[in-house]
Amino acid sequence: MKLTILGCYAATPRTITNPTSQVLEIKNQMFLIDCGEGTQVQLRKHKIKFSRINHIFISHLHGDHFYGLVGLISTFMLLNRVNDLHVYGPKGIKELILMQLKASGSYTGYNLYFHELESTESEIVFEDEKVIVKTIPLKHRIYTNGYLFKEKNSKRKLNIEAVEKYNIETCYYQKIKSGGDITLEDGTLVSNNLLSFNPEPERSYAFCSDTVYNETILPIIEGVDTLYHESTFLETEAHLADKTMHTTAKQAATIAKKANAKTLVMGHYSTRYGNIELFKEEAQTIFDNIILADDGKEIKL
Amino acid sequence: MKLTILGCYAATPRTITNPTSQVLEIKNQMFLIDCGEGTQVQLRKHKIKFSRINHIFISHLHGDHFYGLVGLISTFMLLNRVNDLHVYGPKGIKELILMQLKASGSYTGYNLYFHELESTESEIVFEDEKVIVKTIPLKHRIYTNGYLFKEKNSKRKLNIEAVEKYNIETCYYQKIKSGGDITLEDGTLVSNNLLSFNPEPERSYAFCSDTVYNETILPIIEGVDTLYHESTFLETEAHLADKTMHTTAKQAATIAKKANAKTLVMGHYSTRYGNIELFKEEAQTIFDNIILADDGKEIKL
Question: What's the Enzyme Commission number for this chain (chains A, B) (predicted)?
Fold first, then answer.
């Protein structure tokens, strides 16, 4: 799993900072999370192939998380994309995008599917053999969801030495990976745990932005490997965090601690702060393992 | 008059090029013309004060001319703008912008006026004491207008030496500037042409993008000082210009020549061409005085 931060600053795009967007590479899929203005240029800058992005998850309809989406969809069209594109986001997103395409007389040559969300309970929005994605209902000024991305490693790993020792034919390998015991030609039953190793741990990544401090998300993100949690303000501006329904660095660290997250990635900094190290300093009074997101940063998860 | 090119490339924003947007400084006003994605960052980059932009002219609703508008309007809001903002553009633009603001639960603290256009005849869209702006109906795949910006220098210039010689009091200066003759205390009538000079020439700028080759605009732009005319393609791709309703370099030069323009500024280059000098070479076979637009270029008019 690899996370590439395309932008992680709040509010307005500037020459030196970009609004929220990130790419999660998980099980050879590229998931785009949020899409502020300028995201398509950031994707080009970081040499992320447009054709590898088939799923886009939008947290909420504030401009700094979503104004780059219509341009990206249009560019996909101009580049003669053929792959289906799936967009997950708040109810209303489909009409906003389609109205703009219609006004420009444009129609995508690829299939464009919108998965509109309106539940305030966590729900599965994507699932295939290798990955599952659930919403994390957040509390912000408008309807907002974070997303929990989780690997599915249900298959056990073959113990090559053991299967060779027992002379087991390759046609049984799938059965072993699925946890099955094997009966040899002489009738001996060989238990699965002699033929395979436990699956790799199922890693997980939770994206939580934008939100006020909210403990109701804890059961959903419990034990997550990496938690990205917004920290728009420092405690000195806690009153602004309250008023605008954002989180302080200390509050983000408290969520990470209470959720037993392994690592906290901080971001969505207000552009009023010149030095983002201050966020780390404040959060480390509560939680140790902290990474500061920054535009262009690649984080191995 | 000064023109700052924020972006002048067709279709998709890239790391090295920006979609259409330019700022015309005329009689101490800043007019923003078109607003592709990323325009607000380009404005910051070129240190153009947001508060000086009170009028935005949008040619048409293709993304590369307009997807940056909602973000700019939102940023004005976040920066607590107080001045009125006027947006001129095709019918439908108001709903597209307001729907997005509404979805984000945002309301501008400043007055936001939309002047929606639907006429296919040239019409005056802005006029004050110093500047007049008219539409230039263009022919493109969707409803499109260029804009003609013209100085109004109706006032004559005071001949200081002469008014001092005749001992004329300052309260008569406005009358002289407006062309009036003066009767001295001894009853002598002094003709205005002895007291003032002709006004400065009224300079003009025509913005024409996007359009197919279209001679019906000639009477509107006749004698214009500076003509910005799109030249998306070279003649080798004339079939694409036809198909997509754009113009070749040679065609743009032909329009400039037939309109008796003094200078032609070329832009809206397709990103397929590596070297924009080719546009100048092709156009100079028809018309001499050519400036190639390029992102960040400042052109004194």
Answer: 3.1.26.11
